[in-house]
Amino acid sequence: MSYVSSEPGITPVFRPNSAAYRWRLLASTIGWSLMALMFGLLAMTLVAIIAFVIIRGGANISWATFTQTTQSYHGLINAIEGSVLVTFGALLIAAPVGIVTGIFLSEYQYLKTARLFSFLCDVLIGVPSIVLGMFGYIAMVNYLGWQFSLLAGCITLAAMIVPYIARTSEMALLQVPGNIREAAYALGAGDRTVIFRVVLVSCVPQILNGVLYAAAISMGETAPLIYTAGWSNYSWNGHFFHEPVGYLTYVIWSFISEPSAAAHQLAYVAAFLTTLIALLINLFARSTLRRKNAPH
Amino acid sequence: MKRNTWFRWGVTACASIIPLVLLAIVIFLLIDSWPAMRFNGWHFLVSNQWNLGNEYGDLVTVNGQQVPPGADYGIGFLIVGTLSSAFIALLLALPVSVAASAFLAEMVPKRLQNTASLMVELLAGVPSVVFGLWGLIVLVPFMNHYIYPGLTHVLGDIPFFQPPTGAGYGLLTSSVVLAVMIAPLITSTVRGAIENVPMVQREAGLALGATRFEVLVKTVIPGVRRVIIGAGILALGRALGETMAVLMVSGNALGYLPHNIYSPISTMASFIVSQLDSALQDASGMAEHALAEIALILFAITLIVNVAARGLLWLARD
User: What ipTM does the predicted assembly reach?
Assistant: First the structure.
């Protein structure tokens, strides 16, 4: 048996030890190496950024970080407080709305409205966060007269993460096999019972993962908050309206362009804390989730 | 057949928040930017001016709007900055992420795959302002000292690559940061698509005597090209709207076009943030209205890009 074609003009495709085949193998090896290099480039960037925030920020964390305000350039307590408040506020609004929306999108997917809304969710996810910030500024800060305030920030962030939670919940619910629903309907259960007692309970972890990712997103947001929550060097005084609040991401952006070394250190510490929290949430959500089903 | 219809209505009402938010965004942006649209006209899209006017002068009436004397707004330079930085970012990110996703899907052993893809996908979880800080402190000096001189040395004869290189803040640096931010998005989508290519297709290629690399490049990747294009456009939409990272490394050009690939730029999104303080000083409020108009145009652009991308990805699903 010979691999060599006897017909003239036809190049044999596969002939071990031929020069042509060796060239192809070489080309393949180079190709794979380049691809590995590209992957390495991305992986190295992640390592570089993590190393950067740890070296610059992690080293400067002290007790004062968690006890003093940015007013003194020694601590970040007002920003940490603000970030937590804004994120929890946004989640408090967005999680119920988003999950129920997700239920609508998945359980009534046979309706045209549900498919349209699902598409609109993707559209809303694609809206740049600064546009949402501008919207919050016009609608709440100015039109409703709330001024830079905690609630304006929370609602703006909530508008940003609702479609995200809705889509992840939809994906989670869609993974529940249809025959479970059919079995429940066959027993005479109504929509409400089927959804809350049968379908929802079997995918709670995945839905909570979506909420966790959303928390990570809102924790790391800056642009919409600049336009709605403003900035404050002082701790939150309990007001939902008319009083700006601080948040960690603002410190990173603003304090790095101030002249003093103390301000720079605060920016690095804030970057360390935000990155740490965002990546830990991501890792935690991942570890409990086998299949990746988050939309972009 | 009556099955808890009140329940369905309740769920539908709750889900209606999505179209309502979109509608509210459009309406509020339209209302707030209306005075700016009257004042600026179409000229706004092409002119390269951003002048709030003399804030100490008496307000004058132009086109039915009260503005400080000398006020003149145009965002041609922002549109150029936004589009060019996003497209260059996509140009940089697309080959890297397609190669990385193919490597992850085809070469990395199954038990290492999760860890390896984590290295790329965690990158998407880093907050954008942290990318900005890293870009500002690490990347800007690096580009300025190593990449820019190298580029002018090698490609210096090509227009747009000629010096001067400035200080490292600018178009190319912004694009690199944006590329790093959008690469994980493309990578995870394309990787999923490559993994879904049926094994028989690869086996058919191998049986014809092709090497694994040839199978990948000649059959697998062409087979997922729609996903690649869709994911690419989706990432483009992301890059167009990115604010903080660009704000910190772009050099924040005001009122002029980039003259080469190194020169400072501003994007629409970053400009809205960088101009907030000075806009608040404008007693006539016209500067704020003009910023709202930028937001409206940015919204329109990203809307078009996103709808196109979703459409393509939806087609690729069938």
Answer: 0.91
